[in-house]
Amino acid sequence: MNHLLRELAPVTDRAWEEIEEEARSQLVVSLAARKLVDFSGPHGWERSATNLGRTEPLPATPVDGVDARRRRVLPLVESRAFFSLSRAELEAVDRGAQDVDLDALAQVARRIALAENTAVFNGWPEAGITGLAQASPHDQVPLTEDMSACPRHVAEAVEVLLRAGIEGPYGLALGPTVYRRVIETTEHGGYPLFDHLRKILAGPLVWAPGVDGGVVVSLRGGDFLFECGQDLAVGYHAHDADSVHLYLVETFSFRVATPEAAVALPSR
Fold it and tell me: How far apart are alpha carbons 4 and 85 in whole angstroms?
C-alpha cells in the first residue's frame, strides 16, 4: 500500500482503468506548460525540494573559527484537488457501460492543470515560484484583437530573443481566446494564420489555459526547469453509501534559469 491508499477504495480494477483513462485524456490536452519547458521526473513522493546549487552564509556557528553556509533549495509544492464519483456509475463500468458520468473528474483534471500552467507562466509567490512571463526582462509585446497584426507581434518577440542571443526553435503558448482567434483566421490568399506563425517560430503553438494573451519561449533547452516529484495521480480519500471521494495530486517545483529566453505577449 502506498500513500494514495487506492487499495482501500471500493473501486474495481476495471473502474480504476476508466478513471485513469479519463484523467489522462483531460490532462494531456490541458497541461500546456509541460509542452514548452524542460521536464525532470517523476522523482517520487519522497522528493521534497529542488537543489539550487547555491548557498547562503549562516550568521553564527557554535564554534569560533568555523565558517558555515546553508544549502539553498526550492521546496516542491503539493497540489491536490478533490472530487466525488457516484458508486452506481462506477458499478456501471463493470457492466460494460460506455457512457459513464465522470464529469467531476474531468473538471478537477482541468482545474489542477490550470493551477500548474498558471504557476509556470505567471508564478506562484506563496510557493516560491517565479513564472517565466514575469521573470522575462524584455519589454512586453502586446497582442491586439486585430489578428492581421499577430505575425508582426510574434516576429518582433522572436527578434527580441535573437538579439539577446537566445536561439530557437521557439514555441508560442496562447491563452484559449487568442488561440481560437488564430485557428479561425486566414490571411489574404486563404493562408491559415496558424501555419504562418509556425513558420515564424519553427516550433509549436500550444493551447494554454492560464496564459494572458501569449508567451514566446525558446525550446533550445536548459532555460525553464520543471521538476516533478509525484506525477499527477488519483488517490482515495473516503467513501459512503452513495459516492467514492477521490483526489488528484502532484508535487512539483519550477524555476527559471534564463529569464531572457521568454517574451510575454499580453492581450491588450
Answer: 17
Give the predicted TM-score (pTM) of the model: 0.92
Q: How far apart are CA 264 and CA 173, in angstroms?
A: 10
pLDDT digits (tens, 9 = 90+) for 48-106: 999 999 999 999 888 988 899 999 999 999 999 999 999 999 999 988 888 889 999 99
Torsion of CA 166, 135, 250, 109, to 10 degrees: -90
Place of cell 480519500: 237
Contact residues for 67 (Cβ-Cβ < 8 A; gap 6+): 57, 61
Q: To which residue does cell 516529484 refer?
A: 229
For 239, list phi and psi in degrees, rounded to 5.
-155, 160
CA distance linking residue 263 with residue 7, whole number of Å: 46
pLDDT of 236 higher than 90: yes
Cα 141 to its chain centre, rounded Å, is 23
